Amino acid sequence: MRPTTKLLLAAVMALAALPAAADPVKDGKKVYMTKTCMACHGKGGGKPVMTYPALAGQNEKYLQQQLQDIKAGKRVGSVDPATGHPFVQGMTDIMHLVDETDIKNVAKYLSAQDPAAPKPLDPAPSAEELAAGEAAYKGLGCKACHGNDGLKPSNKAYPFLAGLNRDYLIRAMTEMREGERTNGKSKMMFGTIKKASDEDIAAMATWLSQVDRSAK
Ligand code: HEC
Ligand code: HEC
Q1: C-alpha angle 211/30/85, rounded to 5°?
Q2: Domains in the chain, start-ordered, CATH in brackets?
Q3: Is residue 203 in contact with ligand 2, taking CB distance under 6 Å?
């Protein structure tokens, strides 16, 4: 073997012996695909089933906090009348499958995914309904923390709201107004959301669910 070839071979072998570089997004995808998450939150976190939250493109810090709180049983929320258990129960039940590193990685992976286009509502909301939602959102001062049209949270620990499932949005807002969801930074919402009527909540959820983040 020529000396240069020998050197090259040694270099290649040295490289191969190095541990694979950590890639949190890739590791997070693996967690997402293998720990049942996809069954409920859909491909890439963008196509949730039923009234479950979309996760694609959500703020990493917010996702991480919710995952930690759900695992610790701190996020309870309201009871699903169809099952008699809290809506979050199915998720809490699988959280023993993930550890702290998995949580960090899966939050990184999900926040790096492109948000999906809004799911059309049936029947489609009227222009008046959408305008009422936008007016309530602006009038109540939600913009200060969640940004214009729910598109630009003012802090990395605050969630995007645009394009989330309508029924999920209604539930999340109602739970915070009623003091059923108290984990994380939800207390920051309490002052504002207690001024929202059921009609305001329904209108804001309808409008926010149709704001398209995928094109932004
Ligand atoms: C059995 C269905 C189910 C499975 C499996 C599941 N989830 Fe969830 N997840 C839910 C539901 C339902 C909620 C909303 C609960 C509520 O309404 O309070 C939720 C909430 C969340 C939230 C909070 C979102 C927000 O906007 O506040 C995150 C983050 C999340 N899930 C990530 C995951 C990850 C990651 C996995 C896999 C490790 C997973 N979920 C597995 C059903 C599930
Ligand atoms: C002072 C800042 C602040 C204001 C004002 C505020 N929010 Fe929030 N909001 C938050 C924070 C922080 C969270 C995340 C709570 C957590 O950590 O669990 C949140 C969470 C939410 C969620 C749950 C999202 C999810 O994925 O589960 C919804 C929905 C929401 N806010 C809607 C609103 C609406 C509508 C208004 C106006 C009526 C509003 N917020 C006003 C800070 C605020």
Answers
A1: 65
A2: 22-115 (1.10.760.10), 123-216 (1.10.760.10)
A3: no
